[in-house]
């Protein structure tokens, strides 16, 4: 079985994502929300499809501005479902809008989306899945796992021999911080 670290380097879409984003800690709520939206939209499709549509997603969803998306109404839903630049799936579109409202609530309670993630970290993958299913829409085991790996909350984004892994460890992802404090 091939690993992302084996197929991504040099690829015009996978390469930059692998080298500059995947597995690095994310502190900005808007960037965290973007990752969640992209992972939700990847369900049932290839990651390459999502990466190719990323700019269209940014445009369609107001640069992932959480407060704007939480206010989307029926006209926005119809606009999104008619936008050929993104993945036009009613369940996914509805989940993004609903989840923006949830993130607003989490920010009120924990100061930020990141604050909510940090409050619950560390959890096992299974416990994260339970928490996400209880909190958000359209978040199954693969979506949750990829979201948390991609943002540094779970290990496994890169294999140990991948040169990017060293840069990630220097950046101090939450999973490595916990591992070093307990080891």
Automatic annotation (TrEMBL):
The keyword Metal-binding applies. InterPro entries: Adenine_glyco (IPR005019), DNA-3mA_glycosylase (IPR052891), DNA_glycosylase (IPR011257). It comes from the Bacteria. Keywords: Metal-binding, Zinc. Zn(2+) binds at residues 5, 18. GO terms for molecular function: DNA-3-methyladenine glycosylase activity; metal ion binding. The keyword Lyase does not apply. PANTHER family: DNA-3-METHYLADENINE GLYCOSYLASE 1, DNA-3-METHYLADENINE GLYCOSYLASE I. This is DNA-3-methyladenine glycosylase. It comes from Billgrantia endophytica.
